[in-house]
Amino acid sequence: MELQHLLSGFDFNKRQTIMSPPVKILGIAGSLRQQSFNRAALRAAQTNVPAGVILTTFELDDIPLFNQDKEKELPLAVAQMKQAIREADAILFATAEYNYSISGVLKNAIDWASRPFGESAWKGKPAAIMGASPGLFGSARAQYHLRQVLVGLGMPTVNQPEIMIGSASERFDANGVLTDEKTNALIGKLLTSLVTLTLQLKATTS
Ligand SMILES: Cc1cc2nc3c(=O)[nH]c(=O)nc-3n(C[C@H](O)[C@H](O)[C@H](O)COP(=O)(O)O)c2cc1C
Q1: Full residue range of the structural domain in which residue 173 is found
Q2: Which of 33, 42, 95, 100 is the S-S candidate for 141 at Cβ 3.0 to 4.6 Å?
Q3: Measuring from each residue's beta carbon to the nearest atom of ligand 1, which residues come in under 6 Å?
Q4: In 3D, which of 26, 44, 133 has the Cα closest to residue 80?
Q5: CA distances from 140 to 23, 97, 144, 147 (A)
Q6: Closest atom of ligand 1 to CA, residue 133
Q7: Atom 31 of ligand 1: nearest residue by CA position
Q8: In what order do the strands lie in the sheet with 23-29?
Q9: pLDDT tens digits, the chain, 206 residues: what are they?
Q10: Counted domains in the chain
Q11: Residue with the nearest Cα to atom 24 of ligand 1?
Q12: Nearest CA to ligand 1 atom 28
């Protein structure tokens, strides 16, 4: 299908509804923490979606530790995660930074959904990355590690804008609402870039 036709159904400024089927984005946060800034960043993304986009989240709380002995008969939560990934048109990662890298929770989930060999749910799925940290760098180092992992998974990934939410405790309020307007606007731009990439890929494969 022509890219122009696919894009024509979308109003990134939310001025009109769309004729095209919605673009389904799955948000995954690399933290289990109740008050997680990264979970909060995904909630902020849900309030900034362009028209015609549905953003749901998959929580990693029930994903067990990866065990290659079990990859042929997946634990229920893992099977559900793989299904959610397969049903999504695109993935939005919100990564925490642990010791200059992504959290074990996120890497563990990524590993599960990449297996067994030849049955990865990630392959070809467009992705975007953002992240938050109370530190100054806003998970930048983790995001570059994640970007490298996504290369290995064969996931075309949005390059820009990069969203590193530093000093997170100053940008979210006590209820986990992203109050920083510039960051909200940037998340809107990231989602627009992700939708554009997703539609471009659809246009070249259909
Ligand atoms: C084990 C561990 C390692 C951490 N390492 C880093 C780090 O390298 N860089 C950083 O900016 N923050 C680091 N932090 C702080 C996290 O960014 C902070 O806990 C953040 O709130 C985690 O994301 P969340 O709010 O989504 O749970 C670390 C926290 C933990 C628990």
Answers
A1: 3-205
A2: 100
A3: 31, 33, 36-38, 96-100, 133-135, 137
A4: 26
A5: 27, 8, 6, 11
A6: 17
A7: 98
A8: 53-58, 23-29, 90-95, 127-132, 163-165
A9: 445 555 555 555 554 444 678 999 999 999 999 999 999 999 999 999 999 999 999 999 999 999 999 999 999 999 999 999 999 999 999 999 999 999 999 999 999 999 999 999 999 999 999 999 999 999 999 999 999 999 999 999 999 999 999 999 999 999 999 999 999 999 999 999 999 999 999 999 87
A10: 1
A11: 36
A12: 98
Question: Looking at residue 20, what is its pLDDT?
Answer: 78
131: three-class secondary structure by DSSP: strand
Provide the pLDDT for residue 205: 85
CA nearest ligand 1 atom 8, residue: 99
CA of 35 to the centre of ligand 1 (A): 12
* pLDDT of res. 16: 41
Residues 6 or more apart whose CB falls under 8 angstroms from that of 120 comprise 113, 114, 153, 154
* Residue 100 Cα: closest atom of ligand 1: 8
Structure tokens at 24: 């389904």
- What are the φ/ψ torsions at residue 126 (nearest 5 degrees)? -65, 150
Nearest ligand 1 atom to alpha carbon 30: 26
pLDDT of residue 171: 98
Question: How far away, in angstroms, is 45 Cα from ligand 1 center?
Answer: 20
| Identity of the residue numbered 45 | A
Which residue is closest in CA terms to ligand 1's atom 23?
Answer: 96
**Amino acid identity, position 74:** L
Query: Which two structure tokens, joined as six digits, stand for 181?
Result: 């307007």
